[in-house]
Amino acid sequence: MSTKTVKQKFKAFPFWTSQRFLTAIVTFWGFAVLYLQRVNLSIGIVCMIKHEPDLSNVTGDWNVTSDWNRQVGEFTWDKELQGLLLGSFFWGYLVLQVPGGMLSERYGPKRVVFYTMLPAAVLGLLSPVSARLNPYLFLVVRVLIGVGESALYPAAQALFARWSPPSERSRLVGVSLSGGQFGNALMFPIGGLLCSSVGWDSVFYVMGALGFVWCIVWYLLVFDSPQLSKRISTLEREYIQHHVSFRDGQKTQATPWKAIFTSLPFWAILMGHTCGNYGLYMLLTQIPTYMKEVLKFDLKSNGAFSMLPYLTMWLFIGIAGTLSDLLIVKKILPYAWVRKLMSAIGLFGPGVCMIGLSYMDCTQQIAAVALLCGCVGLSGVAFAGYMVNHGDIAPQFAGTLFGITNMAATVPGILAPYIVGAITIHKTREEWQIAFFIAAAIYVAGGLFYVVFAQTTVQKWAEIPKTLTVGNGVPSEPTEADSMIGRKSPLQEDSL
């Protein structure tokens, strides 16, 4: 069937009512649940801990009458223990980054996600009990929740390798991943309201229950591939199969581990991803605490204002993706320049905002919130930079590369809360200033390394063999997507 005939056949094919879009929407809510359970402790710990009034950050005639200093918590955990607890999720989150992708390729992403996210939801429901029994038991529970949720990102990569035609991949994957920022934004006001009105334990019960419900929906509505879907129309199945070269059981060449780890463009992505995540995870886990200790927001205002940075990031992800596609398609900038530009904005921009934020106190609440929005929002621009660069340099290993860099980029989630907790023992602005300076330096270091060493051309070790085989060694039927194997994209001809 000629390309012209195919285009005519699928010209009026619906997108918004399709099974692939439904798959993206369900995955969107999966990432929202992941972040709801990841961030719930960040807001919950504000009302779990017994606080005493600390006016050291109050200047001038500022009158603190909010209920922040009257909050009576249940636990007397010190700052270092709080930092350990806030970072414990990320210890477990390291575990299935790379294995999660491999397991999804072998057994299917549907089962891998269901059998990892469901126990995480149950453990979320058990969090209040474990916290009251022993803080270190609570720490173990948080680690295990991280393990359970660590497979979702690589599994989603495997899922959309089967479901997304290249021309729709940005929309489908973008819709899915944006669920994380939506969950972040949702958690802060809802968590603050639950915490102050019902009790801190309700934050864990509600989010655990949502996770349980989502797992059921996922199992009923999502399928590993169009071939296995019971809900997809014949026309949509043919449409996806025509544009997607991946087939169930199809083999690729062995993963070139040595070549990957000796590749400077790969290390550029890893450094950008890891350094960007340090500041992002620091803010993710510490924004409520910073707003309470330095800016003196009451609990309800804390939750409401804490959501704004993540709504900003959600918006910036969409703008950056659209703008980068426009710059590439219209050939306004070379391909590599676009990736580097978006990464530079997403790394240098937050670094500058961090420095400004370090000078804020409780008399400058609005300016501080604006800078927080700048830090987090500008980080979203990098979603059109290093966050999608894996597929540029190694299309057939994009899932594996993302698993590796995301695993490395999870380490800051462990370190940042502990480092901040160790620095801000006395809860003063000066201590927070040191924490912000460290984050700013890391942002800039990652940006410099990426801008210097990043590339967008397919690396030699990632070139796809001209002959693809399925599981029994029989050559697979070529598709439109297969016709691009071994060639540069026209958009890459101008890349650096």
UniProtKB/TrEMBL annotation:
Residues 23-458 form the Major facilitator superfamily (MFS) profile domain. GO terms for cellular component: membrane. Its main location: membrane. It is a multi-pass membrane protein. One of its GO terms (biological process) is monoatomic anion transport. The chain crosses the membrane at residues 21-38, 81-100, 112-130, 136-160, 172-191, 203-223, 266-287, 307-329, 341-360, 366-388, 400-420, 432-453. Keywords: Membrane, Symport, Transmembrane, Transmembrane helix, Transport. The keyword Disulfide bond does not apply. CDD domains: MFS_SLC17. InterPro entries: MFS, MFS_dom, MFS_Na/Anion_cotransporter, MFS_trans_sf. One of its GO terms (molecular function) is symporter activity. PROSITE patterns: MFS (PS50850). It is found in: Membrane. Residues 472-496 are annotated as: Disordered. It comes from the Eukaryota. This is Major facilitator superfamily (MFS) profile domain-containing protein. It comes from Candidula unifasciata.
